[in-house]
Specification:
The complex is a heterodimer. Chain A is of the alpha/beta class. Chain A has 21 helices and 27 strands. A seven-stranded mixed β-sheet of chain B has the order 8-7-6-9-12-11-10, with helices on both faces. In chain B, strands 3-2-1-4-5 form a five-stranded mixed β-sheet, sandwiched between helices. A three-stranded mixed β-sheet of chain B has the order 13-14-15, with no helix packed on it. In chain B, a hairpin with a 2-residue loop joins β7 and β8. The N and C termini of chain B lie far apart (about 65 Å).
Chain lengths: ~750, ~525
């Protein structure tokens, strides 16, 4: 047995490498320019979340127990150091790409970024007016010294800091004393730093520098209510923009009459968002959740990103927020790329974006009659976004409006704000159907949104279940009960992705419509279990975490070991977002040693070390990063020829298998199982967007070798669906679809 | 909402000693059914009742909460209340505050809870086993077997000889009771074994008189505990039942009785209260198993709830019903044997009584079940002679009032004991507590059945069955009995003079024997 340190990759570092692969797409010259910019923004927002959750949690670990080590045996301090080193590298790369490549290229396309130094007089005039009428009224500068900074800096909000110097001479004497007493003069020289802590100094309240040890520092939040991209008027036909924060910096001195701005920087703080809601508060869980949301705004800072040259301000901020050098990420260009996404969506310039890929209604699925009969006859696979999400919406809408439907039950984890699904459920409840919505309030960063629409549903009579104590409900399942002439019929939709029509346009997910009796029975029991109707019961087809999903997976892997013979080695092919469960990884190593072939398609972090002789030489790990976010979880086991294939909402991570309610469901219909397996295998022939994990933890992008045709898997799937649709449309109509009753 | 009549949903909620369980089935036109919803929530009502004698306020509140959740489930199926049966078993049955609890349940949930007694549970179990094994090899369905259900508050036992019921009993011994006794004695698990072994040995000795236990070839174990064993070491035969080898069953029980409660909870994902009763329950099965020669344990995956469904679906004219009545009668005959009945006489009286019943059916206003009760009363009317000939009707009443007949519930037994009480010349009087404590409708039934039984008995006054058959003719005001063939009917006429009074009073007809 290998040492633990060689057995697993560190979870966090492996995740950072995932973001590095995303960054690679931003640097990839084959990718359309604005998409590259989009990838840059994704890298930033990914990092934000990573720091708020993962790094925050590591830091908390370090405070509690500095000796703590990960599964690979790396002490937590070292993890933090290595993360910081690698993320600094990547952030530098990111800005190299932005400043050295993408912005110049945009310029060449007629989109110019103008920094304050480059404002022309006419632009200055325009911005002056803009600042005074649109921006100035929204600015609230906080004059502060170190102690006062901390609570007022909102998480992930962009701020400008100004170091001020008084330009009004107040002669010492009674006037100065008076001004001092009334506080107008800011911090008093006598009690040093604390005198004006947190006190507001606004435009009218002329202050001047006291004789304190610290020069006064003012912090202004850049208003989030104004678009960050500010388009400049231009008569030459080119598009020039500057950023709101640039404008605030350029005109910021107007906020401080009587002062000179000595130095200024822009900065953004990521705070700990990884704290749990008090699970014991069953009675007022929603209130507890809301408190969490409020406290997230002012929790411990874990990362500071800043721009501009001001060692003084920087050292203030660092000290005040108890941050170390490694937590500070100075950047040489526009800060907070995550908010530049508007630029990527700029009107016109479609030639700089991905060609539009249509989402096709599944060929063969009737598009103008209700789907019941079809689902009764056959299971139907939906592969979004190659297929459109429309059938799911249609199905929910049909269910809501069909008089024979008596009940609808579904889980909602993340759904879009103005979701058509919620509307359909509301309508169904109003029509007197029994509607149960299982709302996971703990869906991170979606909590606030979830609380608001959950209330709306409750008002119209939907039974809303707000999650389960200590477990997140991550399963995606929809059950429709319909009274038909030959009896009760249940329709189930099971998915790997959320019931969210927006994300379904760029998340690759699979879902299955079925009316299979066993699955319908299990679905009913599943809802009983998660709605507080029942204790845990046995299910026949559906496998549920945290009950027995992990055991089941391990026993499936072990069965593969049993069935493998040298002439016919067993085969496991699995696709997921993350692989990080040591027990499962150990089982895979076991299978490897028994000769089982293992093909893994892991988009994000992967703790498994492939390609090590005697441990994992039969294991291949690929990661595909392309325009759509790979999100399907598919597990295929050869089972000595009697293939079994499952779809799931769960990754192979402890959090999914042990701390969440997840589902794994079998694909029972032969043709669909074959289709999915083909898809699963095809990923391994991508030579454009596929990265292969090496035994040293690095990822190598595969390129077409000589004579090999370039193959981009997402394009292939899209083209295939398109072709299918075109063929279908060309097919001559054999009969008229007659409408009559 | 348009409801095609072919479709029917039926729901059963069972309030048991360890939990509340719900079952929804879809019944198709041909009477077959399939389960479409289930749920179960643990609730230790049994622990309340078997320790303090009453159901606590806390448990009542929980019970209400769970039942109201069940209401939501029922609503999601749009099932109307007339298709919902709510039954309660031992815990509520034995609770001192049973009536007020039932009232609270009715007021707060709208459910009218039907309390079923032990012997009724027996009947349901029999239905379940019969159903589960209906496609099983006849080696199993026609075997000598013990059906055993160790519940929280009671244990139901049935003995079947070649598939025929020979005895059915309900004992007030259940897992919760055992566990409480052990706790009360501050006992260890060793004490529990001894206590259980002792109890089961004496029980088994009694059972041995009814069926040689060493000739029993299979033990049918019902209940959650048994299902847990089946899941772990059993072989699933069909969707409906599993089979466990004797040695596997014993080995498994030996293993898990070593587990702590926490380990059981972890291992089997069951609630604490279930885990607490797991060991005593399984030990009880094991000890019974060891008393018999059974080499397999059969575990049906069905419960008393499915039994309710089967029971509801088997209408009175149903074949299954007939078969079931045969089992009830077999059980009655078996009881009679124990008291050395004059079988020729009781057979004769039964035949005549039923003949009267059938001829007068339109006059009686009674249902098929009443006919069954008359049949059993006729078979058993003389059991009291076992004690002493004089006053044997009073002894008969006592015996029937304190016996179990498979398939009959306590109310049935009360009616029966009153019918036999009045099979001689005595008629009900306000001092007869057993009679006046019956509900009014049951009293009427007793009068009608007893009046027929009295006539039938009178016609064999000499216990010689010499009048083979009668013609019965009903005129406007007279019932005329005409003996077929030539007989000396003096004795019978005398007896009728003495016993026809009740008939004449109840029905308003004069009775003449010619």
């Amino acid at each position: 047995m290998k040492e633990d340190s060689d057995k697993y990759f560190n979870r966090e570092l492996s995740w950072v490498e995932f973001n590095a692969r995303v960054l690679e797409e931003a640097r990839n010259k084959d990718v359309p320019l604005l998409e590259r910019l989009r990838f840059l923004t994704i890298v930033s927002s990914n990092f934000d979340e990573f720091f708020m959750v993962r790094v925050a949690s590591l830091k908390a670990q370090f405070c509690q127990n500095p000796e703590c080590r990960d599964d690979a045996g790396i002490p937590v301090r070292e993890q933090l150091d290595r993360i910081s080193r690698r993320v600094h590298e990547l952030v530098n790369k990111q800005y190299d790409a932005l400043l050295g490549d993408i912005l110049p290229a945009l310029s060449a396309e007629g989109i110019h970024y103008i920094s304050p130094a480059g404002y022309t007089p006419s632009q200055l005039r325009f911005l002056d007016g803009f600042f005074m009428t649109d921006v100035f009224p929204l600015l609230t500068p906080l004059r502060t010294s170190m102690d006062g900074i901390l609570p007022s800096i909102g998480n992930l909000r962009l701020h400008a800091a100004f170091l001020l110097k008084s330009n009004i001479e107040v002669p010492t004497g009674p006037l100065a004393d008076f001004l001092l007493k009334t506080g107008a003069l800011g911090s008093s020289g006598n009690d040093g730093q604390s005198g004006s802590a947190g006190k507001q100094v606004n435009g009218e309240n002329r202050g001047s520098e006291g004789e304190g040890d610290h020069p006064p520092l003012a912090i202004v939040q850049i208003p989030a209510s104004i678009a960050r991209i500010v388009w400049l008027p231009d008569d030459t036909g080119t598009h020039c923009f500057t950023l709101l924060d640039d404008v605030v910096c350029a005109f910021g001195k107007r906020l401080f009459p009587g002062f000179n701005v000595e130095e200024n920087i822009l900065f953004k703080v990521a705070r700990d968002a990884d704290f749990a809601v008090d699970e014991d508060r069953d009675e007022d869980f929603i209130a507890a959740m809301q408190e969490v949301l409020v406290s997230r705004l002012s929790s411990v800072p874990v990362r500071l990103i800043c721009t501009g040259e001001s060692p003084k301000i920087l050292s203030y901020l660092k000290e005040a927020m108890y941050l170390q050098e490694l937590d500070v990420y100075p950047v040489p260009g526009p800060i907070d790329l995550s908010t530049l996404v508007d630029l990527a969506n700029i009107e016109g310039f479609d030639h700089l974006r991905n060609p539009l890929w249509k989402n096709y209604w599944p060929v063969g699925l009737p598009s103008d009659t209700p789907l019941w009969d079809e689902f009764k006859r056959t299971d139907v696979l939906l592969h979004v976004p190659y297929n459109s999400y429309e059938p799911v919406l249609r199905f929910i809408n049909d269910a809501s409006d069909d008089p024979d439907v008596i009940a609808i039950k579904m889980t909602l984890y993340r759904t879009s704000g103005d979701s058509p699904i919620i509307k359909a459920l509301e309508r169904a409840a109003r029509a007197g159907k029994h509607v149960t919505a299982f709302v996971e309030l703990k869906a991170r960063f979606d909590e606030a949104r979830n609380i608001s629409w959950a209330h709306r549903l409750e008002e119209v009579g939907v039974i809303v279940v707000y999650g389960i104590a200590r477990l997140k409900v991550h399963a995606k399942i929809l059950l429709v009960v319909r009274r038909e002439t030959d009896g009760i019929r249940r329709y189930v939709h099971l998915s790997t992705g959320n019931y969210n029509d927006r994300t379904a346009r760029f998340y690759v997910d699979m879902s299955l419509f079925t009316s299979n009796q066993d699955i319908a029975n299990d679905a009913t029991l599943f809802f009983n279990m998660i709605s507080g109707y029942s204790a845990i019961m046995n299910t026949k087809r559906l496998v549920m975490a945290p009950i027995d999903l992990k055991n089941r997976l391990i026993s499936l892997i072990d069965r593969e070991i049993e069935r493998t013979v040298p002439e016919r080695p067993g085969q496991i092919i699995a696709k997921m977002n993350s692989l990080g469960d040591p027990e499962i990884i150990d089982a895979l190593y076991r299978a490897n040693r028994a000769g089982v072939r293992i093909l893994l398609n892991v988009r994000g972090l992967c703790m498994l070390v492939p390609g090590v002789a005697g441990m994992s030489e039969n294991i291949t790990v690929v990661s595909v990063i392309d325009r759509y976010l790979e999100h399907t979880r598919i597990f295929s086991f050869e089972n000595g020829g009697a293939d079994e294939l499952f779809l799931s909402s769960a990754d192979w991570m402890p959090r999914n298998l042990d701390r969440r309610i997840e589902l794994m469901f079998p694909v029972l219909q032969e043709n669909i199982r074959k289709e999915i397996k083909e898809i699963l295998l095809l990923y391994f022939s991508d030579n454009m967007k596929a990265h292969y994990l090496q035994s040293d933890g690095s990822w190598i992008r595969r390129h077409p070798v000589k004579g090999e045709k370039p193959l981009r898997i997402q394009e292939l799937f899209h083209e295939a669906e398109k072709k299918r649709w075109e063929l279908f449309e060309q097919e001559p109509q054999k009969e008229f679809i007659v409408r009559r009753t | 909402m348009n409801e095609p009549n072919r479709l029917r949903l039926e729901a059963v909620i069972e309030i048991g000693a360890t939990g509340i369980r719900l079952l929804v089935v879809e019944v198709s036109e041909d009477g077959t059914w399939s389960v479409i919803d289930r749920s179960e929530r643990a609730l230790a009502l049994g622990r309340d009742v078997f320790t303090t004698g009453a159901i606590s306020r806390d448990s009542l509140l929980q019970c209400l909460a769970i039942l109201n959740r069940n209401r939501e489930i029922l609503a999601s199926w749009a099932i109307a209340d007339e298709h919902v049966t709510v039954v309660a078993t031992s815990a509520i049955r034995e609770a001192r505050n049973r009536d007020s609890i039932l009232d609270r349940l009715a007021v707060k949930t709208g459910f009218r809870v039907k309390v079923i007694d032990g012997i009724e549970e027996n009947r349901l179990m029999y239905l379940v086993v019969d159903y589960a094994l209906r496609d099983a090899p006849s080696k199993m369905s026609k075997a000598n077997s013990i059906i055993l259900d160790v519940g929280g508050g009671s244990t139901e036992i049935m003995l079947l000889q070649k598939g025929k019921m020979v005895a059915a009993h309900s004992f007030r011994m259940g897992t919760v009771i055992i566990e409480q006794q052990i706790k009360a004695m501050m006992g260890s698990s060793k004490d529990m074994r001894r206590f259980l072994a002792e109890y089961i040995r004496t029980t088994a000795e009694n059972l041995n008189n009814e069926l040689r236990l060493d000739r029993v070839t299979q033990l049918v174990a019902i209940g959650n505990d048994a299902r847990l064993v089946a899941r772990s070491v059993g072989t699933q035969m069909t969707d409906l039942y599993a089979v466990i080898k004797r040695e596997d069953f014993i080995a498994f029980v030996e293993r898990i009785t070593g587990y702590s409660i926490e380990e059981s909870v972890q291992h089997f994902r069951i609630s604490y209260s279930e885990a607490e009763s797991l060991a005593p329950g399984l030990l009880a099965y094991q000890f019974f198993l060891e008393m018999t020669g059974a080499d397999i344990v059969v575990v049906p995956y069905l419960s008393i709830r499915e039994g309710m469904i089967i029971s509801q679906l088997s209408g009175p004219e149903n074949l299954a019903r007939e078969e079931f009545n045969d089992q009830i009668i077999a059980s009655a005959v078996n009881l009679g044997k124990r008291y050395h009945l004059d079988e020729a006489h009781s057979g004769y009286v039964t035949r005549i009584a039923l003949k009267l019943y059938d001829e007068l059916e339109s006059e009686l206003g009674l249902d098929r079940h009443a006919r069954l009760l008359l049949q059993i009363a006729s078979i058993l009317h003389d059991v009291g002679s076992f004690i002493r000939s004089s006053d044997h009707h009073i002894h008969s009443q006592y015996i029937l009032g304190h016996s179990d007949i498979f398939g009959l519930n306590r109310d049935d037994m009360n009616i029966l004991s009153n019918v036999v009480r009045y099979h001689r010349s005595e008629v009900p009087s306000p001092t007869h507590l057993g009679y006046i404590s019956l509900p009014r409708s049951d009293r009427t039934m007793v009068l009608k059945l007893a009046s027929l039984l009295r006539i039938a008995d009178a016609l064999d006054r000499g216990h010689s069955q010499h009048i083979n058959d009668f013609d019965i003719e009903l005129t406007r005001d007279t019932l005329i009995l005409r003996a077929k063939g030539t007989h000396d009917v003096t004795l019978e006429r005398l007896a009728l003079d003495e016993k026809a009074d009740l008939f004449e009073e109840v029905f308003g007809y004069k009775l003449i024997m010619v």
